[in-house]
Amino acid sequence: MAGAEVSVLGPGPVVLAFDVGGTDTKSALVDADGRLLGLRRTATPIDGAAPAASVVASLPALASALLAEHPGVRPEAVGLSVPGLVDEQAGVGVFASNFGWRDAPIRALAEGAFGLPVAFGHDVRAAGDAEHRLGAAREFGDVIVLAIGTGIAGAIILGGHPYSGGGYAGEIGHTLADPTGDPCTCGATGCLETIASAGAIARRYAAASGADVAGSREVLAAAAAGDQVAATVWNDALDALADALARLAAVVAPEAIVIGGGLSQAGDDLFVPLRERLDARLSFHRRPKLVQARLGDDAGLLGTALAARDLANSAAPAERSEP
Amino acid sequence: MAGAEVSVLGPGPVVLAFDVGGTDTKSALVDADGRLLGLRRTATPIDGAAPAASVVASLPALASALLAEHPGVRPEAVGLSVPGLVDEQAGVGVFASNFGWRDAPIRALAEGAFGLPVAFGHDVRAAGDAEHRLGAAREFGDVIVLAIGTGIAGAIILGGHPYSGGGYAGEIGHTLADPTGDPCTCGATGCLETIASAGAIARRYAAASGADVAGSREVLAAAAAGDQVAATVWNDALDALADALARLAAVVAPEAIVIGGGLSQAGDDLFVPLRERLDARLSFHRRPKLVQARLGDDAGLLGTALAARDLANSAAPAERSEP
After folding, report:
1. What domains are defined for chain A?
2. Helix, coil or strand: residue B105
3. Which residues on A lie below 8 Å from B250 (Cβ)?
4. What is the distance, to the nearest Å, from the Cα of residue A245 to the centroid of all Cα atoms in its chain?
5. Cα dist. B133→A121, A167, B128, B141, B254 in Å?
6. B248 touches chain A (CB under 8 A)
7. pLDDT band at B106; cut points 50, 70, 90
8. CA neighbours within 13 Å on the CB side: how many for A258?
9. pLDDT at A6
10. What is one Pfam family matched by this protein (chains A, B) (predicted)?
11. In this complex, do B165 and A254 lie within 8 Å of one another by their Cβ atoms?
């Protein structure tokens, strides 16, 4: 994991980076050496009436605090990533169920709030880009970076370049896993996310056992200790994940699938049985390597900072919005 | 369908085109106006001992016949497409279950046989390229062209360019449809192809009813006439296809899915219920248009001819192999 004094980013423009999640927002100032200064988590404001505006309005105060702590450091650009459906090219948050916005012009709002160019992106694609440029996906041209936490989503990199399908691609958590399964928050039925996300594993175990658990880690521990209910929930998740990965191998045929997010912290307890199950499902297919993500929790923030630096490197002064 | 006198290809270099299938080989001479001269189907030689060499050895005689019929027409390049796993860049037939070859240097063999530059490709990707350049996929940047016949395979075009995953991508027929399903010829279990290909529909109906049928068309007709066994087989195929298309929408998010091959000839009987079922499976996803392929049976041959013309346009004389 990237700490405040670890410079995985290397030298480049000074930028502010914000990775806005459904619960927390991570923010940091990235200096010219690539150090993440003042990295912190703060609660994301959720405002049903003006969701995008209230999120954007919360950012300048975070920036002021960071800049006050590091008075000599002047950012040239801002990186901002959000979850949901994101159209990076248009700078629009198309939809995010946690927030409720639809077609929100978030990049323009943020450029107005900061008076700086803003690189606006998708949290999972930002994390995938960071893993591809700095982490576990680095050596692969065709690779999928999967984040398995509360939900499941993937960043697709093909021929060395991110592919976003107009913002809609990579929604592996919302592929059909079980036609007779549970309703998903997305509105469809039996999505992979309802069986195999870290959140679903905890939820399904709690529902089946009546026991309260904090997360998937405890379900895995209970399964290892001989709890049959926990073992069934864990095995169902592994089977559903292996089915989904086998389908990715057949359709996209990536050289590797990098898995990050909370569930990946199970390490060999996840990767060893998942590799076995994937292997059993494939025949002539290109067999993807299953690799643990390397950048940890801050991959999204690092990718956001990389995008802001790319923008600072490419932006001519005339292109900047100076309100 | 492109007849001998229809020029959908337009003006360009004169080429020979061969679309080698598991049963038949289609061949034609393409003149400078883009007409397919002498288009014919001949039996593909299957030789277990030397499968690639015997296929390639059968082509010069076809070429001689075509050139004898059109003495003034001199080809500058040859296009050759085959099924299975194809590495276009290396010019290698990686694997084809119908033929049994493995890592066969087919492009080099064909260049030796013809003394002309050879564009070597994959039959389904060639058909997809033709539909994208000349047919139903023309207006889309992110599009999948699916051929549903004896088997099911797709050509993936992203950002206007074909994506092949090293030759392994687009094997939608070999994605898991039913974990408790039948063994597939590929070695895996419950592949989409075992339920939803035109071949599987006929086979499953014959197995369930004891009646002998020539193809999926007769199963559809029987279902329409009230045959409950036929209706079940047809509905199972539609459901499995809709599941697979919904997963493509979530992962690849194409603007459109173009469907060709034998099954697509059912027209509205296929497309209307398939659109309904796909629609019911999606929530926030990008909803792909389902479009019938336009170039018919000759799409693979047309795409093969296009690739040969591209090669003729790009090949400098020094690059040609003149044995």
Report:
1. 15-127+297-319 (3.30.420.40), 138-293 (3.30.420.40)
2. coil
3. 171-172, 174-175
4. 18
5. 32, 25, 9, 11, 17
6. yes
7. very high
8. 30
9. 57
10. ROK
11. yes
The pLDDT, as a whole number, for residue A1 is 41
Place of tokens 């629609």: B279
Structure tokens at B316: 């400098």
- Give per-residue pLDDT as tens, B194-213: 999 999 999 999 999 999 89
For B277, the token pair is 């079922």
pLDDT, one tens digit per residue, over A52-74 is: 999 999 999 999 999 999 999 99
Chain A residues 94-153 with CB within 8 Å of chain B? 95, 97, 142
**pLDDT of res. A252:** 98
Give the pLDDT score at B6: 57
- What is the SS3 assignment for B94? strand
Contact call for residues B157 and B132 (beta carbons, < 8 A): yes
Q: Once rounded to an integer, what is the mean pLDDT over residues B138-152? A: 96
Q: What is the DSSP letter of B315?
A: -
Closest CA to B44 of B28, B57, B32: B57
How far is B85 from chain A, CA to nearest CA, in Å?
9
A252 and B252: CB-CB below 8 Å?
Answer: yes
Given phi > 0 = left and psi -120 to 50 = alpha, else beta, which region is B229? alpha
pLDDT category, B159, cuts 50, 70, 90? very high
Q: Which residue of A has its CA nearest to B282?
A: A188
